TrEMBL record:
<keyword id="KW-0378">Hydrolase</keyword>
<dbReference type="InterPro" id="IPR017736">
    <property type="entry name" value="Glyco_hydro_1_beta-glucosidase"/>
</dbReference>
<keyword id="KW-0136">Cellulose degradation</keyword>
<dbReference type="InterPro" id="IPR001360">
    <property type="entry name" value="Glyco_hydro_1"/>
</dbReference>
<feature type="active site" description="Nucleophile">
    <location>
        <position position="383"/>
    </location>
</feature>
<keyword id="KW-0326">Glycosidase</keyword>
<dbReference type="Pfam" id="PF00232">
    <property type="entry name" value="Glyco_hydro_1"/>
</dbReference>
<keyword id="KW-0119">Carbohydrate metabolism</keyword>
<dbReference type="InterPro" id="IPR017853">
    <property type="entry name" value="GH"/>
</dbReference>
<dbReference type="GO" id="GO:0008422">
    <property type="term" value="F:beta-glucosidase activity"/>
</dbReference>
<feature type="compositionally biased region" description="Basic and acidic residues">
    <location>
        <begin position="317"/>
        <end position="326"/>
    </location>
</feature>
<dbReference type="InterPro" id="IPR033132">
    <property type="entry name" value="GH_1_N_CS"/>
</dbReference>
<dbReference type="InterPro" id="IPR018120">
    <property type="entry name" value="Glyco_hydro_1_AS"/>
</dbReference>
<protein>
    <recommendedName>
        <fullName>Beta-glucosidase</fullName>
        <ecNumber>3.2.1.21</ecNumber>
    </recommendedName>
</protein>
<keyword id="KW-0624">Polysaccharide degradation</keyword>
<feature type="region of interest" description="Disordered">
    <location>
        <begin position="315"/>
        <end position="344"/>
    </location>
</feature>
<comment type="similarity">
    <text>Belongs to the glycosyl hydrolase 1 family.</text>
</comment>
Amino acid sequence: MVTAAQQTASAPDAPRTFPKGFLWGSATAAYQIEGAAGEDGRTPSIWDTYARTPGRVRNGDTGDIATDHYHRRSEDVALMAELGLGAYRFSLAWPRIQPTGRGPAVQKGLDFYRRLVDELLEKGIKPVATLYHWDLPQELEDAGGWPERATAERFAEYAALAADALGDRVKTWTTLNEPWCSAFLGYGSGVHAPGRTDPVAALRAAHHLNLGHGLAVQALRDRLRADAQVSVTLNIHHVRPLTATDGDADAVRRIDALANRVFTGPMLNGAYPEDLFKDTAELTDWAFVQDGDLSRIHQPLDFLGVNYYSPTVVSESDGRGTHSSDGHGNSPHSPWPGADRVAFHQPPGDTTAMGWAIDPSGLYDLLRRLASDFPGLPLVITENGAAFDDYADPAGQVNDPARIAYVRGHLAAVHQAILDGADVRGYFLWSLLDNFEWAHGYSKRFGAVYVDYPTGTRIPKASARWYSEVARTGVLPGA
């Protein structure tokens, strides 16, 4: 049954005006756009190693050049200004700043981000820096990676270096982007770097990502001005049962624990959920959680970043059901430790080029849940968008009406959630540019701006012009 709120969210009929001060932006990630993989002291990250391993990434694509943002930075900032973006969410490449994951920063690496931030500020665009979007220095992975406590400690040291260099100009910081992907796709199913397939390592990684987050927040707070904002971005899964049975309800509970509460529990409530421990007891006793860890993880945040693309539908199974890798690649290994008796199902309706169901009502429901679960914590949509099979026509134009419809529907859901009490402060469209889409290489285009990869030419798509008008006016037009 579709509720009135869901119907409103998925089919906007009239223009909607967003609150004054609502932040409009777009987002990228360093490995997906920068290129210059071996320049100015940068060393390999786990994604360099993974992408260069035959069979890991479609067509053997790598991020060695990507969209060459490292050399086309000024052009891209000018494009953001032309589109009227109020903010730009970008990530810092850890191996560009601290190549071995230890010791002093490389100034040439920091200089790139200093210049980027200066140019953004000159154009009136708010810089929003993410410390970690999956590009762990390979040397740290060789020492054990995120399953080891030392990586969390190194992450805090890196956060301090970044804050010391950029904190006078960057006022909004995010520690981690989607730690679920880092832990469970990287160490569980192996469809993301570093490509390991060990369920216990995935759980250990989740904890040490949590710990790294908490230690990084402390490092940032120690160095930033009192008015700086610090956050984390989670890809909170909106999990729905296939049927109304008790078994399917328990499947939702299990996946909610592994996808969401494994992070929101310690980060926002100061404790892991007890059912998570019970569900994974056959794998680990969680002895890697040391005394004092939970207080280190549970740090005050200024807002929660929320990434949403599609809902997740699950049911109880007999242990032979399919497991989901969240659309990022196929693997015989599950990213869901302790959830062997959960099956995943394709939600109904139209899909994007990633095969993800288009369902704005899931975003509405998710925002309402977060507002209820964590009252007083502002929310920002730090990623939302869609991949479609875009192409430039003979006139050099890229028309993408499906993306416009996708974004319009999801922005309507955000607006409705605000009207119904959710404190949502901003929206970042994913992504500014077509780019390296992880294990899919360059085969999937998420950008508002089309990139001709052989030449690097940027062509704003119709959706970019449409979104530009929304960002300038704060008004979402009707369908």
